[in-house]
Design brief:
- Keywords: Acyltransferase, Lipid biosynthesis, Lipid metabolism, Phospholipid biosynthesis, Phospholipid metabolism, Transferase.
- Pathway: Lipid metabolism; Phospholipid metabolism; CDP-diacylglycerol biosynthesis; CDP-diacylglycerol from sn-glycerol 3-phosphate: step 2/3.
- Its EC number is 2.3.1.51.
- The chain has 263 residues and is α/β, with parallel strands linked by helices.
- The protein is built from 9 helices and 7 strands.
- Strand 3 (97-102), helix 4 (111-117) and strand 4 form a beta-alpha-beta unit.
- Helix 1 (3-33) packs antiparallel against helix 2 (43-55) and helix 1 packs across helix 4 (111-117).
- The N and C termini lie far apart (52 Å).
């Protein structure tokens, strides 16, 4: 990493706390005392993402925006390769959407109030009745017109390659009943790898696929829909983000070979 990029990465890292606080306070003031519109207040998280990308020298390009209808709610489903996913999507996707965050984050002073001000959606990730209720509440918010972005891998990929999708996010899509849009995050892992604090910078491409209707899928089809979405996201990724092929002697490869022989 060059001295210039090291400086920019350090500056971006040090900027996150004060910028986040400033954005949250601005959103709170705007929603309560000025324009009083949560939709218009989305300018604040967008400004947060765009500024951090620019400071860190992360150059973002979006492909496939023509696939979206500005008037429709969607669930965006993407690979999760880096914290730069959040920065780039926040800053450069203009479609009206909300982030989903675990309920504990809403208890953080200023940050939680800021998330409520811009209408972020709370999810209870514990088990039991409250978790089911929060999932149902989130589904109602989405079906009522709130687009969201989800990362079904559950966590950031350590090597930037696409991992299997968990079905929790898929169940939310099925409950909401809105179209699902695959998104490929390319270059974000290289720009800010998992485990590193300072951004390396570079080019990032967000590829937006065509919406996939969910109305014909039922709860029992969640694994099938997860597989379809996984494939659609993979089609939007550069080769360096694709899953590595299964070794020939792996259990999965052996099963597939047996199936081909039997067929």
């Amino acid at each position: 990493m060059s001295i210039i990029q090291f400086t920019r990465g350090l500056l971006a890292y040090l900027t996150i706390p004060p910028l986040t606080a400033a954005v949250c306070l601005s959103a709170i003031a705007d929603v309560h005392w000025f324009r009083k519109s949560k939709a218009k207040a989305q300018i604040f998280p967008r400004t947060w993402g765009k500024l951090l990308c620019r400071i860190a020298n992360i150059r973002v390009r979006v492909e496939g925006k023509e696939n979206l209808d500005p008037a429709k709610p969607y669930i965006f489903i993407g690979n999760h390769a880096s914290m730069a996913d959040i920065m780039s999507f926040s800053g450069y996707i203009s479609h009206d959407y909300r982030w989903i965050a675990k309920k504990e984050l809403f208890a953080i002073p200023i940050f939680g109030s800021g998330m409520r001000a811009v209408d972020f959606i709370s999810i209870d990730r514990s088990r039991g009745r409250e978790a089911v209720k929060s999932l149902n509440d989130a589904a109602k918010r989405i079906s009522g017109g709130a687009s969201v972005i989800l990362f079904p891998e559950g966590t950031r990929s350590a090597d930037g390659r696409l991992r299997p999708f968990k079905t929790g996010a898929i169940m939310l899509a099925l409950k909401a009943g809105v179209d699902v849009v695959p998104v490929g995050f390319n270059g974000t892992h290289q720009a800010l790898p998992k485990g590193e604090l300072l951004a390396r910078g570079g080019d990032v491409v967000l590829r937006i696929g065509k919406p996939i209707p969910t109305k014909d899928f039922k709860a029992k089809d969640k694994q099938m829909l997860a597989g379809i979405l996984h494939q659609k996201v993979a089609e939007l990724l550069d080769e360096c983000h694709l899953p590595l092929p299964e070794p020939e002697n792996s259990p999965t490869a052996s099963t597939e070979a047996s199936a081909e022989t039997e067929g």
